[in-house]
Amino acid sequence: MSGFPQPTLEIDLAAIAANWRSLRERHGAAIGAAVKANAYGLGAADVAPALHAAGCRHFFVATLDEALALRPLLPGASIMVLNGAMPGSEAEFIAHDLIPVLNSLDDLARWQLAARQAGQSLRAVLHVDTGMARLGLDELYADAYAEEP
Question: Which of 4, 33, 69, 138 is buried most deeply by CB count within 10 Å?
Answer without folding.
Answer: 33
